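Field reference: "sequence" (input) and "structure" (output). Example, Isoprenyl transferase:
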Amino acid sequence: MAVVEKTQAPQPPAHVAIIMDGNGRWAMARGLPRAAGHRQGAEAVRRAVRSAAELGVGYLTLFGFSSENWRRPLSEVDDLMGLLRFYLRREIAELHANNVRLRVIGDRGKLPADIVALIENAEALTAGNGGLSLIIALSYGSRQEIAEAMRRIAQKVAAGDLAPAQIDEELVGAHLQTADIPDPDLIVRTSGEKRISNFLLWQAAYAEFVFLDTLWPDFAHEHFEEAIREFHRRERRYGAAVG
C-alpha cells in the first residue's frame, strides 16, 4: 500500500505591508463624497487585520496617511482625522482583546494633540500583547524618516560618540522608526496603481510587490489570500544567482 506524503503548506510572509489606495475612486464611482470612501476604507482595515491574524502573518503595516496627504483639501483632512479618532476609540478594546499590539510610525508632531494622546494610550494598552503586530503609518514619509535617521547619526559623529567608519546598513536601520520590526516580505498596493509613494523605501529593499486592481474599500479576505499566493510563486534570491 502506497504511503501518501502530506505536503506542508508554505509559511505565510512574516511581515505584510499594504498601501491602501482607492477610497476616493470608490466613492466617486458611486456618486458619494470622498469621506464615504474613507469610512468604507476603515471597514476594510478591520477585515485586513482579522485576515492577517487568521493567515498567520506576524506583522501588518498599513499606510494610513502620508506626509504628502497634508496637502489635501482641509475638509478632507478633517474628515480623515475624525475617522482616525473614531477608529482609535472604537477599535482598541477589540484589538486588545484579540492580543493585537498596535504601533504607530510617522511624524506625530503634525497630528492633533488629542489623537497623539489616543495613540499613546493605545500603544501602552497593547504593548504586552504577543499576537499580530499592527503598525499604522500616519503622517509618514520614508524620505523624511531616513533624513531624520541621518541627522541623529550625524549628531553622534559630531559629538565624538560615533566614528564615520562605524556607519553601516545595520546602524542606519537601527535609527529608523522600524528599528525593531522586521523588513516587509510582501508589499501590496490596491487600486491598480504601481508605485511605492514614499513608503518604507529603506525597508522594502528585498520585498516582493503585488499590485491589485481592487479598490481598498473592497479589499477582503480573498484578496489577502490572493496576494499571499502570488508571494509564494515568487523566487526570492536576495541578489544571489540560481543554479
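Strands lie at 15-19, 59-66, 101-105, 133-140, 186-189, 208-211.
The first helix runs from residue 23 to 29.
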